[in-house]
Amino acid sequence: RSTQLSSAQTTRSTCPYCGVGCGVLIEHDGKHITGVRGDPEHPANFGKLCIKGTTLHHTADPALLSARAQYPALRPTRDAAPQRVSWDVALDTAAARFADIISRHGPDAVAFYFAGQLLTEDYYVFNKLAKGLIGTNNFDTNSRLCMSSAVVGYKLSFGMDSVPCNYEDIDHADCLFITGANPAFAHPILFRRVEAARERRPGQKIIVVDPRRTDTSELADLHLAILPGTDVALYNGMLHLALKKGWVREDYIAAHTEGFDAMREIVRDYPPAHVAERCGIREQDLEQAAEWFATSPATLSMYCQGLNQSTQGAHKNAALINLHLATAQLGRPGAGPLSLTGQPNAMGGREVGGLSNLLPGHREVANPEHRAEVARLWGVPSLPATPGKSAVELFQALADGSVKAVWIGCTNPAQSMPDLGLIDAALKRAEFVVLQDAYRHTETAAYADLILPATTWGEKDGTVTNSERRISRVRTAVPPPGEARHDWAIGVAFAHRLGHRLGREDVDALFAYDRPETIWNEHRETTRGRDLDITGLSYPLLEAAPRQWPCPEGYSEGLPRLYSDGRFPTPSGRARFVATTWQNTAEQTNARYPLQLNTGRLRDQWHGMSRTGTVARLYSHESEPLLHIHPQDLASRQLHDGDWLQVHNPRGKVVVRARASTTVPPGQVFLPMHWGANAMAGLGINALTTAAFDPLSKQPELKHAAVQVEALAGS
Ligand code: SF4
């Protein structure tokens, strides 16, 4: 099978939106993309696409070229409009500014903030540039906002960041426990698989845990509408019941785990009546959920931001995995904890060490042996030991002046980060802001001193890894517009210029990449002998079909399920029960701010809408950001459905219209996360969210803030 199908007009690639990672067939005439279809041979979607996928070609319409960044542009002063410059001028300017700041303030005065949208090869180059060439661990990504709690949860429990399950497990599960996730909107093709499994297996039980009523919960046999942030109390309560009723698997616990006695002590304090009250659910529903979870022949959990975007995100993940371990619900078809990644390549970013605390091959910055291994692999004397700044910390450091320059790639922090007032102050204070993006009108572009045009879906070439550890090729169908360049190539060109200014004679050898495959080959070598070993996965093998990791040298297929033998990559070989106790959210409601704000995705939009916002059809579902609020909360404020409102708290204010809805209970409100300053008054939805973050995963609590809602003055 070649990169081109029999028709020269069709190129096989991967959808650039969510972590399901659907295969797509791009139809084109060699210059323009004319259509897109689902790839019937791709095991993530078997030819199906959701509405975002089926409208992808509209985002590449030539009429939308004006939205693309096509030429490098430099702002002579902060108040001036960006002026077109050559690539040489752009890259020399960037190298001069970075070299100057590094020489005056040290390597930790610069930082990089990228995205789970990048391809693995792009990630690899910029991560090496920051940690290997410059010598700073200040390389973080928007995946910090998405799945860093899941990473820590897996590491705490299993010893490694390895998703043990796969999508096929949905077909085999007797009980699906969907918690803190709304796949009907956020992972639609996986949800169709859930619906199909439901039809084929009438006895299958579906439990959905979500404070809101969603399209996902409509399918559930049991919907546990827990109070926001009470997840750990729920899971500990279910474990309490499993112990009390004799549903735990003592044989599995004894043979394959450690730390259970401490957890047994903790869950004594989670009796059903107490837990039901804490979570705001009925005791009999709690008991039913515990019974189905523990006693079904195979139980699969699917979870996402409801667990991750929390100041207790890592322990929410670990508490859920505790349940799987205690009831031996993992390591066989249909059973296990399947965390869903939000972005198309958040998983690939984890593999190359694309976070400020990670190094390639699932290694840790904090581990001296890991630093030495990577330094040897890269051929540099050493790697920096100073911890890098995570997403929120990085912007806090820009705001306080300790970081002077930031290079932002393929993401829009001025729309997507929490506490946008902080981000506004940070980007205004920064001495030098580079934005490398395919789009030129994002909220972040307004702050950029230098804009570098990057290629995007349909133009790029490389690999991505989806939520089930499956690596797929992303392939070029058409040339990029104007002078846009591939992200990895921008990184290589900048590295050479910066390296020479820093007097690094080794820079040419360090960045001797001429195409994505050479980067891939170096990347896979960093995984040799690690849990994610992909030394067997060459580009030619990936041309034939997407494959899962691990896939060591000598193998041609990956492993569909991990830990089937009951052995785990911890020092003892046993999985660990993590002592998890419930903690409340960082921000509590009070008399002034009595409503709990939850934010999340709409079905038809993606992130800050740079791409989906260009497609008229994708506004037919919801065309504006509406505040979903219970009719009682409207009535008590003499407000009505459709009224203009202001939603505010001490961090900021947004003006939106009301949607009276019983999908949220009284006391809670919901706003879609997609709208920023370009599409509404003020800084955007995230002006309201809090930058408080989990101390273990550093993931901010985007899903919990306290707000007040009032009539808009004069309306
Ligand atoms: Fe793309 Fe996700 Fe939709 Fe698949 S489910 S078509 S990957 S947005």
From TrEMBL:
<keyword id="KW-0249">Electron transport</keyword>
<protein>
    <recommendedName>
        <fullName>nitrate reductase (cytochrome)</fullName>
        <ecNumber>1.9.6.1</ecNumber>
    </recommendedName>
</protein>
<keyword id="KW-0560">Oxidoreductase</keyword>
<keyword id="KW-0574">Periplasm</keyword>
<feature type="domain" description="4Fe-4S Mo/W bis-MGD-type">
    <location>
        <begin position="8"/>
        <end position="64"/>
    </location>
</feature>
<keyword id="KW-0732">Signal</keyword>
<keyword id="KW-0500">Molybdenum</keyword>
<dbReference type="GO" id="GO:0050140">
    <property type="term" value="F:nitrate reductase (cytochrome) activity"/>
</dbReference>
<comment type="similarity">
    <text>Belongs to the prokaryotic molybdopterin-containing oxidoreductase family. NasA/NapA/NarB subfamily.</text>
</comment>
<keyword id="KW-0479">Metal-binding</keyword>
<keyword id="KW-0004">4Fe-4S</keyword>
<dbReference type="GO" id="GO:0016020">
    <property type="term" value="C:membrane"/>
</dbReference>
<dbReference type="GO" id="GO:0051539">
    <property type="term" value="F:4 iron, 4 sulfur cluster binding"/>
</dbReference>
<keyword id="KW-0534">Nitrate assimilation</keyword>
<keyword id="KW-0408">Iron</keyword>
<dbReference type="GO" id="GO:0046872">
    <property type="term" value="F:metal ion binding"/>
</dbReference>
<dbReference type="GO" id="GO:0045333">
    <property type="term" value="P:cellular respiration"/>
</dbReference>
<dbReference type="GO" id="GO:0042128">
    <property type="term" value="P:nitrate assimilation"/>
</dbReference>
<keyword id="KW-0813">Transport</keyword>
<dbReference type="GO" id="GO:0043546">
    <property type="term" value="F:molybdopterin cofactor binding"/>
</dbReference>
<keyword id="KW-0411">Iron-sulfur</keyword>
<dbReference type="GO" id="GO:1990204">
    <property type="term" value="C:oxidoreductase complex"/>
</dbReference>
<comment type="function">
    <text>Catalytic subunit of the periplasmic nitrate reductase complex NapAB. Receives electrons from NapB and catalyzes the reduction of nitrate to nitrite.</text>
</comment>
